[in-house]
Amino acid sequence: MFTRPSFGLAEIAWRWTFGLAAISLLTFSVLQYLNTLPVGPGDLFLLRTGHPLLVSRAIAHILQGSALRATKAAFLLLLLLSLAWVVIASWSRLMTVSALVDYFHEDRAKKAELADIPKYRPRSPLGLNLLRVAIAAAATLGVFGAFLLARAASPATNPAPGSASLIFLTLVMGIFLAWSFLNWILSLAAIFAVAEGSLTFSAISKAVDLWRVRSVSVLAASTWFGFAHFFVFVIASSIIAVPLGFAGMLPPGIVLGGVLLVVLLYFAAADFLYAGRMAAYVAMIQSPLEPIPPPGPPPPANSDHPSNPPAPIARMDRDELILSDTPILPEGSN
To answer: Does a structural domain hold residue 94?
Structure first.
């Protein structure tokens, strides 16, 4: 993270570029939608009164009949943004992970002075990012289903807002945890797709194997970077109270600019930490496990008594003809 900050800057660059483009497109779409709404003289008169009840009635009359058009436009916009994110995120992950693999290959070659380092076959994690979008859509539908179940638990004839809130929050928490774990597995599998050229489901299998075999190392990296992210969040939350404290004395533009600056710095630090955590995962993948020695006899407790004593020297039998001192005379001789 500190020797090669370009990795973190690259992560910030592609995320912020897509985020700025998405926000601009959403803003333009909302403005174009508002321009299509019919505003009659009566609605304009109610809006100018400033009375909350009259203003809400005017807005309801203006939006009447446009819900279906807004839903279609929002669905089309989200679909196109999702496809654009899949392409951009896949290309960016291919570039960043390839650079990290090259960095660790170079580092291994310098340390071990190796001439031949096994090459990797990078593959685009396009299928994994499509699965991430599908899981996010499923989680969104799950939240909507949780709302319907909570609403059914509190009918109008026998309302139970406490039970409905408990059911909704419990289901949403379970959906969030499941989505977070699956999204983390797929983001980890994208590293295998690039570093080892694995296909979609093969990369998922290798990500699960990494979690199973090196659960302590993976959990340690995730925990420490999670603590760092939480620390940055606490610092940003404390700093953001400074411009808000001068809201009554400074112009709104300056206060809003200060809040926006703190938010951008927080997002930059979060993206930088994400790049560091990804580099930690790549380092785990590129560093093979130490081979386990085969089982054998325990080492000797005392060096004066070795575990493998020398073989005893066999005594010579002097009665043997080969080793006797009596000469062997030929037949017929005295």
So the answer is: yes
